[in-house]
Design a protein that fits this description.
Strand content: 15-25%
CATH superfamily: RelE-like
Order of helices and strands: EHHHEEEH
Number of domains: 1
Mean pLDDT: 94
Shape: globular
Largest sheet: 4 strands, mixed
CATH class: Alpha Beta
CATH architecture: 2-Layer Sandwich
Low-confidence stretches: none
Strand order of the largest sheet: 1-4-3-2
CATH topology: YaeB-like fold
Helix content: 40-55%
Distance between the termini: 27 Å
Amino acid sequence: MNFRVRYTDTAKQDLREIAVYIAGQSKEKETAKRFVNELREKTKILETFPESGAVPNDRILKSQGYRFLVHKDYLIFYHYSEQEKTSYILSVFHAKRDYVRVMRKLI
């Protein structure tokens, strides 16, 4: 299976905000870039294994086919379309946030 990985505008904005936050905290732009690249690298597994992410416990998110990957302290939420052979990255955020609340705003 060769799937494409596409980022929604929300996910792109999430990555920008993560980079700004890390750069501000570390005072190192390179550290921020490196971490965002790690997050992007993590999603490459979806090109071959789109079902590799965990299924959320929330019944609504589960019923709509959402899944997530974990990278360090961050969650990468996505869904995939078998017909389109595409995994869509929906949102990326810190795991301490209430993922149900964050994701329900997007659906």
